[in-house]
Amino acid sequence: MDEPLAGIELNDNQRRHFEVLLTRLEDSLATIEMLLAAPPPRHLTQLTDDVSPGFRVLAEAEIPRLRQQVERMAAALGLRPNVVSLRRIIGAALTTDAVRVQDSLASQMRGYGAVDPSVAVRLDPALLRLADSLQQIASTLRR
Questions:
Q1: 63 and 96 in contact (C-beta within 8 Å)?
Q2: What SS3 string covers 67-114?
Q3: What is the pLDDT, as a whole number, of residue 68?
Q4: How far apart are CA 30 and CA 37, in angstroms?
Q5: What was the pLDDT predicted at 1?
Q6: CA 78 to CA 19: how far, in whole Å?
Q7: Most buried of the four, 91, 108, 111, 120, by CB within 10 Å?
Q8: Are 8 and 77 in contact (CB under 8 A)?
Q9: What distance in Å separates the CA atoms of residue 6 and residue 72, rounded to the nearest whole number?
């Protein structure tokens, strides 16, 4: 049987569109698998496992099939993989979070209303330690 996707011609913009689309689909499938397998423990986001056993069975069967479809489409359309540096992704996340923490210091919180003096005296030092820890971890990636 002939491959139905063989011979499809895409211009560069269309090819990039499908590279992004299918990359995001791969990311979603990986996230679903990770969440169904063993979500990492978290304190401020508490996941309620309200997924039915039927969905778990279906996902376990369908996700590998969907991955194969994505792989076939990518090959047939001549899509190029996006090479991503794990070091850069982690570093960017840590740096971004450090900046967000620093943007939460008392001097930055006036837009949310009057800031009690205890925020600057007691919370700011804890926030600065948190931001410093994030920056230290990020700096080890740059070495």
A1: no
A2: HHHHHHHHHHHCCCCCCCCHHHHHHHHHHHHHHHHHCCCHHHCHHHCC
A3: 97
A4: 10
A5: 47
A6: 9
A7: 91
A8: yes
A9: 10
